[in-house]
Amino acid sequence: MMDTASPERGGAPRSDAHPPDPVELDPLVREVLDAAPMLVWVSGPDKRRTWCNRPWLDFTGRTMQQELGDGWTEGIHADDLARCLGVYNKHVDEQRPFRMQYRLRADDGTYRWIDDAGIPRYATGGTFLGFIGVCVDIHEAREAEAELRALKQGLQTPLQPGEDLRVTSPLPALVVRELKTVITTVLGNLEIAHQHLQSREPREARLSRAIGDALHAARQAPTLTERLLASVKGHDR
User: Fold this and answer.
1) Which of 74, 139, 163, 233 could form a disulfide with 112 if both were Cys (CB 3.0 to 4.6 A apart)?
2) Judging by DSSP bridges, how do beta strands 128-137 and 111-122 pair with one another?
3) What tens digit of pLDDT does each residue of 178-211 get?
4) Which residues touch 232 (CB under 8 Å, ≥6 apart)?
5) Which residue intervals of the chain are DSSP H helices?
6) What are phi and psi of 26, to 5 degrees?
7) Model's pTM, two decimal places?
């Protein structure tokens, strides 16, 4: 999958061009990374994966052997694979930190969005050792952002004549209730002002008509919010 040759593994001696990797050799470092709440991976200078921590293996439901080399790429969603590898290869070649988001297959077969941040590693003498990366599961956050975008787009799109109101995103019921309270308050104040102006002199008839029009529109709002609330409750069940 990567654009470099496969490195030797197992008991084969390392090439002199590749100095010992302290992450691979130090059991204490591996123990600390295995206890971390994030998904951590390590790759060599040839871009191929050399180690994954326990949370990564638990998340993917795969073995270390399956993830080594280019095996980790088998879990990336097909629609994200080319972009993901493009970012990865470019930044490893340039030895620059990167950050990207992609969908990774979880142990239950579903794909979840993760945020992957990688930085280059160097030996004491400055020799490039490869990369180490930390991944965080951001699936719920991505879904929430998508729902908010869809909701915003829906609110900005005016209803056509005869078109019914439909809720396709789970807008929290609390927000709907608060909206209804605000509209009810406005409606009550408009009613008071309208009654007051109707008793005044004819010269204020124009203002009275304007408030009457506002009242006509506002009186429809409680029905709309009730329907919206009912749709939200139906979505949550």
Assistant:
1) 139
2) antiparallel
3) 666 666 666 666 666 666 666 655 556 656 666 6
4) 167, 170, 171, 172, 173, 176
5) 22-25, 27-35, 54-60, 64-67, 78-94, 139-156, 173-198, 205-218, 221-236
6) -90, 110
7) 0.57
Of 139, 151, 18, 7, nearest in space to 68 by CA: 7
For the chain, give the number of residues: 237
Three-class secondary structure of residue 113 per DSSP: strand
- Find the radius of gyration of the CA atoms of the chain: 30
The Cα 134–Cα 131 span in angstroms is: 10
CB 8 within 8 A of CB 18: no
152-176 pLDDT per residue, tens = 666 665 655 655 555 444 555 555 6
CB 76 within 8 A of CB 84: yes
What's the pLDDT at 176? 61
Res 143: pLDDT: 83
Q: How confident is the model at residue 23 (pLDDT cuts 50, 70, 90)?
A: low
Q: What is the pLDDT of residues 92-112, one digit of tens each?
A: 999 999 999 999 999 999 999
What the block records as the tokens of 47 is: 């871009």
Taking the CA atoms of residue 9, residue 23, residue 63 and residue 110 in that order, the dihedral angle to the nearest 10 degrees is: -130
Rounded Cα distance between 169 and 156, Å, is 14
Residue 11 CB-density burial (10 A; 0-12 exposed, 13-18 middle, 19+ buried):
exposed
